[in-house]
Design a protein that fits this description.
Aminoglycoside 3'-phosphotransferase, Chain: A, domain 2
Length: 298
Amino acid sequence: MTERMHDGQLVVDEELAGELIAREFPALAGLPVVSVSGAGTVNAIFRIGDAVAARFPLEETSDADLASEALRLAEFAAASPFSAPEPLGIGTGDERHPSAWALQSWVPGEVADPFSLASAAAFAEDLGALIIALRAVPVGPRAFDGRGRGGVLADHDEWMSHCIAQGAGIVDVAGVSQAWASLRVIPTAGPHVMSHRDLTPLNLLVDGGRLTGVLDGGDFGPADRSLDLVCAWHLLSAGPRRMLREIVGASDDEWRRGAAWALQQAMGLVWYYETSNPVMAELGRSTVERVLGDPDVI
């Protein structure tokens, strides 16, 4: 039995997913429902036929939350120069899976690998094009919603202290402590911009070494302009990383804040998922090593 990643984690298999899908969306009844394996930490994903995906949250989520997410997802899909899922509907759970769940269009592609694509200059160019396109969307009257990463770095001090304690023996926690102390005080590098907010390998689809699709656009919104730069340390080696920086025109402060957000995210992965999701834990370790070994950051 696979170890659960979260306390109270909801469980759904192909049989249950198929029953709920057929009940809520009769037009899809009879299509094959296949679990999509991967290292995702938020949803169980099922492919329905050739063109539809169902996302069942691993933690209870309301239909209002998913409706709000669908609006942002649609805006993201319109802004992205690469394919992105579009919302198709929201389903209701029952006592077997007490959470709302969502239907989206299926986007083909392979999940980006944080190692095999590390030296791919064309992939770095694609990431730069994506970030520039998202930043071009007007923020308007919207403001950062205060959730997760994307606001004030120092607000994450307590979390980083906890992660550093938990990460002892897994990563160079002395190096992480020293890096965070330096990075957390870097000032913001300009007004907030529209951001995907989670440009990690699992949310990027590739084919032939090029970016072809972007998943999980449901958090699209204003955030620190440095936040989407986390992909540089999650995915790229030094040369392509510098290329990405040149494409987006990041200043020293903007670039180093991007590294700070990558470090904050990675430190949560290395210990929290150490046994329950080794792929995510390994991503965390490799990102920490890239940040600590980057002369443009440390």
